[in-house]
Amino acid sequence: MLARFAMRGALRATVRRYQSTQAVNTLASVFEEYREKNYAQTLPSRFAKEVVGAADANGDGFLTKEEIATIFENIGATEAMSSDEINEAVNTLAGADGELSTAEFIDLLTGKK
């Protein structure tokens, strides 16, 4: 229970860092809700690594919009975000280099950024 409260606080801080864009907030919330329902006994860092491992289909260390959309399909969350919202979230998270590394995505899911 304490870990869930800590994760929610970390999630809020992460979302604020990305200037609370609605798309980033929704993206993080979808994964957090899925974690709470299906991985409640798993550490957030372990969950994040499993999600990223499943998402990074080609193993290049970066996540594309398509790879994130595929994960949404796999977890039954296709209605949670449109492809435009996923694009906006990835573009916001990727920053200046235009690429969303798996490490950056793990940081989002674990609240380290």
Automatic annotation (TrEMBL):
Keywords: Calcium
UniProt KW Calcium keyword: yes
GO molecular function: calcium ion binding
Cited InterPro entries: EF-hand-dom_pair (IPR011992), EF_Hand_1_Ca_BS (IPR018247), EF_hand_dom (IPR002048)
Domain EF-hand: 43-78
Protein's name according to its UniProt entry: EF-hand domain-containing protein
Source species: Triparma columacea
Taxonomic path: Eukaryota, Sar, Stramenopiles, Ochrophyta, Bolidophyceae
